[in-house]
Design goal:
The structure holds two protein chains of two kinds. Chain A contains four helices and eight strands. By secondary structure, chain A is of the alpha+beta class. In chain A, strands 1, 2, 3, 4, 5, 6, 7 and 8 form an eight-stranded mixed β-sheet that branches. Chain B is elongated, with a radius of gyration of 22 Å. The chains are: A alpha+beta, B mainly beta.
């Protein structure tokens, strides 16, 4: 008689443990990970902004405010006994979005008597959408460190096209000059065959300028 | 017997807590001054990229050219071999027009310092304090071939 009761109790307890809401300590649902890291934009440390880690299989997002030194640490914003913002997150796979706005230009006003427009967006739009940011991380129990290298707003496809158009409109003279210069250069290079062969060899490693660490696009803004 | 066990456990816990946390997570510290052609840089970012596995550690260049490396939020970095990169851009020009994000600021640092393969800045970070000044020059390194500017015209 006693044994049957115990068994029933055991089954019930097992069932209860299947639901995390009961607070059963199942290690896979324990919020025991901490995440910190750094945000860089075009290779330079950010000084403000927000990073959001979206769990792949649903659940609370974890948010980090970027500090003046470019660092961030995550919290899920769920209250615990420690305080309103707990600095731990659930382990798992997360997709990241980043948003950074620059200092407000107070001369821009939305309307009569309206508030000044917010500061300009400093990151490329693709980083604001978790499906396109390309930033996905596996958060493990314990300490985690993730560097987030993102591209600046000048890398938006629309902006790059606009820049290309304005370049063509205003710099046609420059291009004509360049063309004649390049023509001359090509003649010189052809004459010195050895040097050009060397140049081609050294070009290949440099093509990999997009580094996760400090890579900014090889496209230098004129 | 139980009390003894509890005491031992607590002692162990205290010791572990003391070892991890107090005195910093990392065994090395790096700071220094960045100059370009002899003049201190007023802004920018230094990155220490580890030769082995691990994340890069960063330091912001202050207006006096000084930088101090931290990993994430914490001071310092693990000792070891590093390839350093330096990126500094002018502040973006505020156009005063409400037509979207301002164009990125012009680069101050030469392009080769932006990539670990071409920067030529290799350093060993020893445990403890390291003073590493980064002396940059606008003189290209030997064999430097600037990547072709992306022409808007298709050839």
């Amino acid at each position: 008689m006693n044994k049957t009761n115990h068994l029933r109790f055991a089954y019930l307890a097992l069932l209860a443990c299947a639901f995390p809401l009961t607070g059963c300590n199942d290690s896979t649902s324990e919020r025991n990970a901490t995440v910190q890291g750094t945000l860089t934009i075009d290779g330079e440390l950010a000084s403000s902004g927000t990073v959001t880690f979206h769990p792949l299989d649903g659940g609370p997002v974890a948010i980090g405010q970027v500090q003046a030194d470019g660092s961030y640490s995550l919290s899920t914003g769920r209250g615990t006994a420690d305080g309103p913002n707990s600095g731990t997150v659930f382990p798992g796979t997360y997709q990241v979005t980043v948003m950074v706005t620059g200092a407000q230009d107070e001369t821009i006003v939305v309307g009569e008597g309206g508030p000044p427009a917010g500061g300009p967006r400093l990151v490329a739009t693709k980083f604001m959408d978790k499906e396109t940011s390309g930033l996905e991380f596996e958060i493990k129990s314990g300490r985690n460190l993730f560097v987030l290298p993102v591209l600046g707003a000048s890398h938006d496809p629309a902006t790059e096209e606009l820049a290309a158009e304005s370049d063509q409109e205003t710099a046609t003279e420059e291009e004509a000059e360049e063309e004649t210069k390049e023509g001359e250069e090509e003649e010189e290079v052809a004459a010195e065959e050895e040097t050009s062969a060397e140049q081609q060899e050294s070009e290949t490693p440099e093509k990999e300028t997009t580094e996760a660490s400090n890579g900014s696009d090889s496209e230098a803004t004129p | 017997m139980d009390r003894a066990k509890t005491l031992i456990r607590s002692a162990f816990l205290l010791v572990s807590l003391a070892l991890c946390g107090c005195g910093g997570t990392y065994d090395s510290y790096v700071s220094g001054v960045v100059t370009l052609d002899g003049e201190t840089l007023p802004r920018g970012t230094v990155a220490f990229n580890p030769q082995g596995p691990g994340s890069p550690a960063y330091g912001r260049i202050e207006d006096d050219g000084k930088y101090n490396i931290q990993t994430g939020r914490e001071e310092g970095l693990p000792s070891g071999q590093y390839q350093v990169t330096v990126v500094a851009n002018e502040l973006p020009q505020m156009t005063g027009r409400d037509d979207g994000p301002p164009p990125a600021g012009k680069p101050i640092t030469p392009q080769w310092y932006r990539s670990r393969q071409t920067s030529g800045l290799d350093f060993t970070v020893a445990p403890g304090s390291n003073e590493i000044d980064l002396v940059l020059t606008t003189e290209p390194p030997a064999g430097w071939d600037p990547p072709k500017k992306k022409n808007r015209r298709r050839r």
